[in-house]
Design goal:
The complex is a heterodimer. Chain A is built from six helices and no strands. Chain A is mainly α. Helices cover 66% and strands 1% of the residues of chain B. Chain B contains 20 helices and two strands. In chain B, helix 7 (224-258) packs antiparallel against helix 8 and helix 10 (308-322) runs antiparallel to helix 11 (331-354). Chain B is globular and about 70 Å long. Classes of the chains: A mainly alpha, B mainly alpha. Chains A and B meet through helix 1 and helix 5 of A and helix 5, helix 6, helix 7 and helix 19 of B.
């Protein structure tokens, strides 16, 4: 594989430290496989949502409900957080643990902003629009699909926070590097899923 | 304690075997009770509700908790050995997969003593499985128990994929891999892409039942047919998750005892891949009668029939392997040879069912029951018996008795055909499945009696197998490295049972059937690919067990989160999700421990290796 990170090796850490050991390579490979399974998981949730999106049972419809500026703001936070996680990985490849930690912190903060907006959105729907899990088949499908994604974001925040702690304790090594790399893969994946949610759930809900 | 903390794939294999065997026994007893109820018309041995619970639990237990773990047992025991690896890619995850499976299975079976087993059939069709029609906690045990067990399967699948991709011995290209390793590889890929679908399905059904969601509630806009789509997009590939490993086993056993290389190896590989691919394309043939319309029915009918082509290739390749070989009919080979005609019969009725117009007649009759038991018992269980007898000496270091093995084979296969062959005719005459009794004088009486006698005979065959295990377990562990003398693959090049590091030196693979190739070249064993050196081993750990206990508690808490208990305190604990939270806390705590304390493992030094 050609590499764009031609910097010399600092402090004995190989470049691409996430792939320096057999265990690390296995971890990255297995995580790609896991994401394949996750793709099926979200695919099934999307199929369910598409099948039920117009079954509103006389409750609120997507068009009445969604407020695009709010969703656009959430999208912005999440997309930028993907970019910052790329910066984190680049810092890792340059063997700069402090910079890596800072970019991870920014990523976590942006994820928290996204999650806060989503919680605000859900609570608004439940309190003001009388749109809960039990309202209609559409509501069940909406909360399950978007909520599953939200739970993934929450898990990612927890995970990356723990890794920041681990980084402080153990430093950047060939053991911690694969974990950080894999968590970044995960973060990109939930970002990609969100792009689909934004399109299929929100945009299609407004215009379809 | 040793068994709870182990991460050794060979010990995990044995754990899978015993746990799977236990659930197999439970599922078998359920089957015998069902057959006893149907022995004569208007029998009142069981009531309708109990019968519903029994058929549901029989199907669920056998598929998810019986055959799958035994398949995983053989994969765990054999795959690292066959590809010349010291271990699987993720020993920790391997243990975690086993424990989540076991606790999921335990949760599911606790339903018998905790207020009613699931009663909506193993497919849990909505709306039959919604709270309106299934008021006990039975289906909750189903959704949550299977969810936890399914997690274990998914973990196992990913682990085998990574193991086979990255840990093959030097020289073992993909096209030199033994067929069982290929079958495991493809099966794991199917698991990876099929299980997440059922994960979602089970979540949706759980939400409908516990949180009052409306996915399958037509009154609120939900769709019961949606469940069928989700269930079968998983459920049909599941059929191939079950049968491909059996194909793999047969492809190992027949060449060994025919003393010839497998005929058409590459066509076998591509047939396996093709079957896996087509397996995902045909799920709606389970749904011909739900009103999908003639176009969908026709497309799914044709794609289903297509699967007969690669399967036919396999059948003929096995026959051509035996053709002209000097065949030894040992017990494993008896089962393997018996597999071919029985499985073919199941395949033929499969093509009949794939014809949509004919399916309108066969649907939900005993013809379907006969068909899938010919595939799953006549195919998979025969394959598992072949594999267990074949690899038993490798796993345990002891030979099973050939005499008792032959008794097992003949009673089992006779009982099998008695039980299920007549069910084809019962189905064609119109006997419905899933109904707890039938009226006299419909020509059902004699055939049902025959079927029940056959089931008893299969039970006897299984008991002889158990007796064989018990009797031979007193023998000394004296099996040779290559006890069948004609072993072809790498597992037969190391001692039986293998040492915990498997290979003292990683072998160099120089062709298909690596060991056979060396033997025919006049060599004593495999040529090593590396000098004797220090071997790194993973440490034993109780964390996988603890994580699974946590998930078990969390599932339990979630299931009863809407119940009123007689004790106010207990209600408080469950209704506020305290029990659920506690379970998750245990699991996440164990995950935290895992991430805080790195497992550096330990080493076996060369002096130790030489000194044994």
């Amino acid at each position: 594989m050609t590499t764009t990170h031609a910097e010399p090796v600092h402090g004995g850490l190989p470049h691409e430290p996430e792939k320096a050991t057999a265990e690390g390579r296995n971890k990255v490979l297995a995580f790609w496989l896991f994401l394949g399974g996750e793709a099926v998981l979200f695919g099934t949730l999307f199929a369910t949502f598409l099948a039920l999106r117009n079954q509103t049972n006389e409750g609120p419809t997507a068009n009445e409900l969604f407020h695009l500026p709010l969703v656009a703001a959430a999208t912005f936070f999440l997309l930028v957080s993907s970019l910052t996680s790329v910066f984190a990985i680049q810092a890792m490849h340059r063997n700069r643990p402090a910079l890596l930690r800072n970019w991870l912190l920014v990523t976590v903060m942006l994820g928290l902003c996204f999650l806060g907006l989503e919680i605000y959105e859900f609570s608004e729907y439940v309190r003001h629009e009388k749109f809960g899990m039990t309202t209609s088949a559409f509501s069940s499908a909406f909360y399950t699909l978007v909520g599953f994604h939200g739970a993934h974001v929450a898990f990612g925040i927890l995970w990356i926070s723990l890794l920041i702690g681990q980084l402080a304790r153990k430093g950047l090594t060939v053991v911690t590097a694969p974990k950080i790399y894999v968590s970044a893969m995960y973060w990109h994946f939930i970002d990609v899923v969100w792009v689909f949610i934004f399109t299929v759930v929100y945009l299609l809900g407004k215009v379809g | 304690m040793d068994w709870i903390t182990t991460v050794d794939h060979k010990k995990i294999a044995i754990l899978y075997l015993w746990a799977g065997g236990l659930f197999f026994g439970i599922g078998g007893i359920e089957a015998l009770l069902i057959r006893w109820q149907l022995i004569k018309p208007m029998n009142d041995f069981l009531d309708a509700q109990t019968f519903n619970e029994l058929i549901t639990m029989h199907g669920t237990t056998m598929i998810f908790l019986g055959v799958m773990p035994v398949i995983f047992a053989l994969m765990n025991a054999v795959i690292p050995l066959q590809i010349g690896a010291r271990d699987v890619a993720f020993p920790f995850l391997n243990a975690l997969g086993f424990w989540t499976f076991l606790f999921g299975g335990l949760l599911l079976n606790l339903s018998w003593v905790m207020g009613g087993a699931p009663d909506a059939g193993w497919t849990s069709y909505t709306p039959l499985s919604t709270s309106a029609y299934s008021g006990t906690h039975g289906v909750d045990f189903y959704t949550i128990g299977l969810q936890i067990a399914g997690l274990g399967t998914l973990i196992g699948g990913i682990n085998f994929l990574a193991t086979i991709i990255t840990m093959r011995a030097p020289g073992m290209s993909y096209m030199r891999m033994p067929m069982f390793a290929w079958a495991t590889f493809i099966t794991s890929a199917i698991i990876l892409f099929a299980f997440p679908a059922i994960t979602v399905g089970l979540v949706l059904l759980t939400f409908d039942r516990i949180l009052g969601a409306n996915f399958f509630e037509p009154g609120a806009g939900g769709s019961p047919v949606l469940w069928q789509h989700i269930f079968w997009i998983f459920g049909h590939p599941e059929v191939y998750i079950l049968i491909l490993p059996a194909f793999g086993i047969i492809s190992e056993v027949i060449p060994t005892f025919a003393r010839k290389r497998l005929f058409g190896y590459s066509s076998m590989v591509f047939a396996t891949i093709l079957i896996a691919f087509l397996g995902f394309m045909v799920w709606a043939h389970h749904m011909f009668t739900t009103g999908l319309g003639p176009v969908a029915n026709a497309l799914f009918a044709v794609s289903t029939m297509l699967i007969a082509v690669p399967t036919g290739i396999k059948i003929f390749n096995w026959l051509f392997t035996m053709w002209g070989g000097s065949v030894r009919f040992t017990t494993p080979n008896l089962f393997a040879s018996g597999f071919i005609p029985t499985f073919t019969m199941g395949g033929v009725t499969g093509v009949m069912l794939a014809s949509a117009p004919a399916d309108f007649q066969f649907h939900d009759t005993y013809f379907v029951v006969a068909h899938f038991h010919y595939v799953i018992v006549g195919g998979l269980v025969m394959g598992l018996f072949a594999g267990l007898h074949y690899w038993w000496p490798k796993m345990f270091g002891r030979m099973l008795s050939e005499t008792l093995g032959k008794w097992t084979f003949w009673t089992f296969i006779t009982g099998f055909h008695l039980t299920f062959f007549v069910q084809h005719f019962l189905g064609l005459m119109g006997m419905q499945r899933r109904v707890f009794t039938y009226l006299p004088n419909q020509h059902f009486d004699t055939l049902n009696l025959v079927s029940t006698i056959g089931a008893g005979l299969m039970g006897v065959g299984t008991l002889i197998f158990l007796a064989n295990i018990v009797i031979t377990s007193r023998n000394p562990m004296d099996a040779d490295d290559d006890p069948w003398e004609d072993g072809r693959t790498l597992e037969w090049s190391i001692p039986s049972p293998p040492p915990e590091y498997n290979f003292k030196q990683t072998p160099l693979v120089r062709g298909l059937d690596a060991l056979w190739k060396e033997k025919t070249a006049g060599n004593k064993g495999m040529t090593p690919a590396e000098p004797v050196g220090s071997i790194h081993m993973p440490s034993a750990t109780p964390l996988p067990f603890i994580m699974s206990v946590g998930i078990f508690i969390a599932g339990f808490g979630f299931m009863f989160s809407r119940d009123n208990f007689s004790s106010g305190f207990v209600s408080f604990l469950f209704n506020n999700y305290i029990v659920t939270g506690l379970g998750l806390l245990i699991t996440f705590g164990a995950m935290l421990m895992r991430s805080l304390y790195d497992d550096h493992g330990w080493h076996i030094e060369p002096e130790e290796l030489e000194g044994r």
